[in-house]
Every structure is written in structure tokens, then in C-alpha cells.
Amino acid sequence: xxxxxxxxxxxxxxxxxxxxxxxxxxxxxxxxxxxxxxxxxxxxxxxxxxxxxxxxxxxxxxxxxxxxxxxxxxxxxxxxxxxxxxxxxxxxxxxxxxxxxxxxxxxxxxxxxxxxxxxxxxxxxxxxxxxxxxxxxxxxxxxxxxxxxxxxxxxxxxxxxxxxxxxxxxxx
Length: 172
Prior knowledge:
The protein has 172 residues and is of the alpha+beta class. It has helices at residues 61-73, 114-123, 138-150, 155-162, 166-171; strands at residues 17-30, 33-45, 50-58, 77-78, 90-94, 97-103, 110-111, 128-134. The strands form two sheets. Strands 1-2-3-4 form a four-stranded antiparallel sheet. It has a four-stranded mixed sheet with strand order 5-6-8-7.
């Protein structure tokens, strides 16, 4: 997995929407009894090619979500979106989660489950076919989906890397 095309994005002048993917109640057992806290994974995006995810932990649900949103805003990346779908098929894995995303025709919608759907909607992808295999752990699914999206390359970046014109990329 090469992360050479990761483009960090500034949060100023962006309309970011946050989506709560998962919230977990965590218990710490001490000699005085049980201590409860919360862990939240949040995805933020502008629905126009920019997305980020974050993890927040706190004693209260609202604080955990707020911390997750702040963490997600620090990790924003740019994803190529072409006409509401992705440029090409891509697979990625993170830990035990394996994801596969494929471009789809207009009108198909987002065919994906829970955690993957939140990431794809935040990016602004309207038509895509997605499948997850292996672990359904929301943390790993979000990270695998973002890894797959980061490996996507649009025609312009391919032409720059190869040092040829755009029509050469399509016509070989």
C-alpha cells in the first residue's frame, strides 16, 4: 500500500459534515468497582472528495463524539471522484477487514454496509458497489475503506506520473 498520493487538506473554508459510525461503552474494572467510558469513531467529509476519520474517548457520549470529530478534522485527505463514482475498481485491507469497491452506473446508489457506507457518503460518492469480507469491526472497516480510496488514481495523475498526455492514457 503506497501512500505517495496522500494529499492533506486544510480545514479552513470547508463545510464538513460528521457521521457517527460506532459508539462503544468501555468498562474498566477497578477494586472500587466498574468505571464506564465511551469510545466513538466518527467520519467527516464535505461530500465533494474530502474525507477524514477520527477516534474519540471520554467519560460521556457527547464528549467522545466531539473528540472524534476534532481528530477526524486533523486527518482529512482528498479522494478523486468522477461523476459521482470512483475512477476504477480497488481493493484494500486493514488488519482483518478486506474491502472491495467498484464504480457503478448512474442511478445505482451506494451499495455498501454500515461503516463503509458512512465513509463513501462523506466522500461524496453517489454510485458505487462495495463489499467487505473478513472482520466487520467498524474501526478496521473505516480504515480499510479509506486505504482503498487513497489508492485510487484519476487520469490526470496517471498521465503526470507516466509523463504522457491525457489522450495517450486512454488510447494507449
